[in-house]
User: Fold this.
Amino acid sequence: MKTTRGYIYVLLAALMWASSGTAGKALFEGGMTPFELVQIRVTLSSLLLGLVLAISPKEYLKIRWKDVGYFLVLGVGMALVQGTYFFTISKIQVAAAILIQYLSPFFVAFYSILFWKERFTGLKALALLLSFGGCYLVVGGYDLELLKMNRLGIMVGVLSAILFAGYSLLGERGMHRYRPWTVLFYALLFAALSWHVFFTPFHYLKAGFSAAQWGWLLYISVIGTILPFGLYFMGVNYIRSTRASITATLEPISAGLMAFLFIGETLSPLQILGGILVIAAVILLQIRQEQDKLAPILIRSEKK
Assistant:
């Protein structure tokens, strides 16, 4: 039951992230830069989540002083993930940008096996290969001209994938000590502080954004940040980083559909095939999980 809940949390997070990517693309087309968007996103998100947790009956805001350094690293990681993510979206298709970022399961799996001694099964390897193949097709790896045109976007997207893998693993470590919402709040808080140090502080207060733009920024902060990151951390709590990161690759499929419906982006048949491969990878993981749960029951039945 907890495992199923974990998958549901991650899938909901993927859908919400997908909608925020499409909303971000629309803001870029209206003249907003990726760095402005990210600075506002993490600032609004940390303020809103902080207010909610402050009036909560539980002590969500309480952390140990010795863990401040950990949350600082996590927050800088989040700042870099979001900056590279939205920069990639500003350069190439929404679905393609997100799919590149979801090469991160390879980095998550590699680290987990190397340092955390996590078991690496053949089925998990197949799921990773399907996920990689899907990413390759969706970003147009077969089209050399497409790769040439979007070289900078693709390079930053790969960097975003590496950063997202590290962020996922760091987040899982924090949840051994704190609730998911506590980890998320301090990650957002230190991400916001980082953006105000390395980018023009409070630039957004005098940028003259319209009411509609602020509405989309609020949407991205709540639906595209607070809720999905919180759900993702809750999912990781149940199904571990490797499974969660592979499951979340459903995000670009949703993003591609939303981008097609709302801002007119289209995908070729081979790119659609890539999306199908990603979905297949997630289904394989779910089947394996069910087999793992049934195995002890079957063994007991045979003994009887």
Q: What stands out?
A: The longest helix spans residues 211-247. Residues 2-205+224-303 form one domain.
